[in-house]
């Protein structure tokens, strides 16, 4: 059915596909929400500091 070279190519394809799938799952469920949440927290801190500076001046 498969030559040995074709079998190795098929295994390489499945490996790359699997790694890509789990990388996308990891990025979508952890990295991107962490990135967005951190940037929102930093922006809220900046807004709060601006209001404090404006009220003290």
Set out the fold topology.
Layout: H1 4-56
Summarize the structure.
By secondary structure, the chain is an all-alpha fold. It has one helix at residues 4-56.
Describe the protein's architecture and organization.
- The structure is a single chain.
- The longest helix is centred in the middle third of the chain and has 53 residues, at 4-56.
- The chain has one helix and no strands.
- 93% of the residues lie in helices and 0% in strands.
- The protein is rod-shaped.
- It is mainly alpha-helical and 57 residues long.
- The mean pLDDT is 95.
- It has one helix at 4-56.
- Keywords: Membrane, Transmembrane, Transmembrane helix.
- The chain crosses the membrane at residues 6-36.
- This is Fumarate hydratase.
Fraction of residues in H or I helices: over 70%
| Computed Rg | 24 Å
- The amount of beta strand, in percent, is under 5%
Task: Please give the count of helices.
Answer: 1
Report the biggest beta sheet as strand number plus sense, adding barrel if it closes. none
Note poorly predicted spans: none
How would you sum up the global shape? rod-shaped
- The beta-strand count equals 0
Order of helices and strands: H
Helix/strand/pairing class, anyone?
Answer: mainly alpha
Q: Give the mean pLDDT.
A: 95
What is the end-to-end distance?
80 Å
Transmembrane segments: 6-36
Protein name: Fumarate hydratase
Keywords: Membrane, Transmembrane, Transmembrane helix
